[in-house]
Amino acid sequence: MRQDERPVAVILAGGLARRMGGGDKALQRLRRRPLLDHVLDRVRPQVGAVALNANGDPARFAGFGVPVLADPLPGNPGPLAGILAGMRWARRAHPGATMLLSVPTDTPLLPADLVARLRQAKAGQGGAIVCAASQGRLHPVIALWPVALAEALAEALDAGVRAVADFAAPHGLAVAAFEPAGADPFFNVNAPADLAVAARLLG
């Protein structure tokens, strides 16, 4: 894939992390490194550029070398707002990019062929949007989105749509199924105990 064909990516860290006890899940330590570092390691080789969706003071993420995008709507409306922030950043900073990859900040095992598999599924199945699945579960936040859907997404958010799948389905949703022999590549760190599990899965 040529550099100019790669999507750009937004890592979603705008949630309140209640099950983690609040604060920044992205900064939780996993094997002595912030969780965000692990996700960046997985995502950066697959995309042309990366941004982080997070609210509050962006200075706390200054050491990661990525632009920080706040939700465009108040009140922590959920991941769709972060995806919209990513689409608008892509248009502004990377006008040649047609697709946006979204991933959450709590998935440190993301596969190295995530983008390739998503693109393959989109080409084979059609649909404007393509998301990952594993172990019989859809992961609609782990997806490729056309940047051209920014206006439609803004209108949906204004109309009160909050569930990612509710927005994606009417536009056509392809699915890339990952059936790993080992650990689920989309294992997510929701609670403090999950950090120990993730450390073990990382080997």
What does this structure look like?
The protein has helices spanning 35-43, 79-93, 114-125, 150-158, 164-168, 192-201, and strands at 8-12, 29-30, 33-34, 50-53, 68-69, 99-104, 129-134, 137-146, 173-178. It is of the alpha/beta class and 203 residues long. It has a seven-stranded mixed sheet with strand order 5-4-1-6-8-7-9, with helices on both faces. A two-stranded antiparallel sheet has the order 2-3. The radius of gyration is 16 Å and the shape is globular. It has one domain: Spore Coat Polysaccharide Biosynthesis Protein SpsA, Chain A (Alpha-Beta Complex). The longest helix is centred in the middle third of the chain and has 15 residues, at 79-93.
Global mean pLDDT = 93
Total number of helical segments?
Answer: 6
Low-confidence stretches: none
Indicate the CATH class. Alpha Beta
In CATH, the architecture is: Alpha-Beta Complex
CATH homologous superfamily grouping: Spore Coat Polysaccharide Biosynthesis Protein SpsA, Chain A
Strand content: 15-25%
Say what the CATH topology is. Spore Coat Polysaccharide Biosynthesis Protein SpsA, Chain A
Biggest sheet: strands, sense, closure?
7 strands, mixed
Counting helices, strands and paired strands, the structural category is alpha/beta
Cα end-to-end separation: 30 Å
